[in-house]
Design a protein that fits this description.
There is one protein chain. It is built from twelve helices and ten strands. With about 325 residues, the protein is an alpha/beta fold. Helix 4 links the parallel strand 6 and strand 7. The protein has a single domain, classed as NADP-dependent oxidoreductase domain (TIM Barrel), CATH 3.20.20.
Length: about 325
């Protein structure tokens, strides 16, 4: 395993963060793993040297947090960096169970900590931008969470770069805790973050932990086989992402060709490309398979030449912004 420092937090994290959206309750999504299988994945991740885990309160309506917390409860908690997120409404009929008001952050962070079985989470992230709550109110609530030792650092997820800049400026202006990380949508098939968000994060020393590094599976197999998995068949959400626009078909074909030449898997080439991006600290790799987790770790050993990087990147064309929903 390779390790890096997460932004300017000083925390050391594995270059791969295990995403836990696939843990919890299969009734939530057809492809979600039950508790036993999720625990098996966590155990293998620990064996491989992964020390960074990301979940969210809305994954399986909280069950992902519970499974992760119980799995890590078998180890020394201090050895791991655990991140979770809040924003989406958790309970029908209770609008205050979502959003980023002080009430929502306080109660939903407490609920997350209870499910995780932890007094403090290492990184608490706002899952999306809240258009109904002033950013100052959100920043004040997040600062309070850090001061009360319920979170060590705070981070954000997908939003417009101008919104993230506004949030950072508000924290600086008020002398409050600022966002230390950005969990954004970034992969070979979706590179719009290179325009503004990644340069902003670089300038502000913000850690970058991209979600969907394999484009929800669209970088793991040829275009003709995209529906060959349970998730590929059932997840209409994935089809709303513009992965096959803007040269996506050709990029997919080039990933396949390069993988064949190197005798590795398509997913490993896609991850190797992300590992080469200077702004990226640790892609969040979600999986339902121990084998695929092992493949992701092995991708750290793959080196791509400048010409190979250019070969993969050359077909890309601008696509519609996606992932802020």
């Amino acid at each position: 395993m390779e390790y890096t420092t997460l932004g300017d937090t000083g925390m050391t994290v594995s270059r791969i963060c295990l995403g836990c959206m696939s843990f919890g309750d299969p009734d939530w999504r057809d492809w979600v793993l039950g508790e036993e299988e999720g625990t098996e994945l966590v155990d293998r991740a620990v064996e491989l040297g992964v020390n960074f885990f990301d979940t969210a309160n809305m994954y399986s309506a909280g069950e992902s947090e519970r499974v992760l917390g119980e799995a890590l409860g078998e180890y020394d908690r201090d050895e791991f960096v655990v991140a979770t997120k809040g924003y989406f409404q958790m309970r029908d009929g209770d609008p205050n169970s979502g959003g980023l008001s002080r009430k929502a952050i306080q109660q939903e962070l407490d609920n997350s900590l209870e499910r995780l079985g932890m007094d403090t989470v290492d990184l608490y992230q706002t899952h999306r931008w809240d258009y109904d709550t002033p950013i100052e109110a959100t920043i004040e609530a997040l600062d309070e969470a850090v001061r009360h030792r319920k979170a060590r650092y705070v981070g954000a997820s997908s939003m417009w770069a101008h919104q993230f800049a506004e949030a950072l400026h508000a924290a600086d202006r008020l002398g409050l805790e600022r966002y230390a990380t950005m969990q954004n949508h970034y992969n070979l098939l979706y590179r719009e973050e290179e325009r503004e968000m990644l340069p902003l994060c670089d300038r502000e020393s913000v850690g970058v932990i991209p979600w969907s590094p394999l484009a929800r599976g669209w970088l793991t197999r040829p275009v003709a086989e995209l529906d060959s998995t349970t998730r590929g068949e059932s997840e209409e959400h994935a089809r709303r992402h513009p992965y096959l626009e803007g040269g996506g078909d050709e990029i997919n074909a080039r990933v396949e060709k390069l993988a064949d030449e190197k005798g590795v898997k398509m997913a490993q080439i896609a991850l190797a490309w992300l590992f080469e991006q200077e702004e990226v600290d640790a892609p969040i790799v979600g999986t339902t398979s121990v084998e695929h987790l092992e493949d992701a770790v092995e991708a750290l050993d793959i080196s791509l030449s400048t010409s190979e990087m250019e070969y993969l990147e050359e077909p890309y064309q601008p696509v519609r912004v996606s992932g802020h929903e």
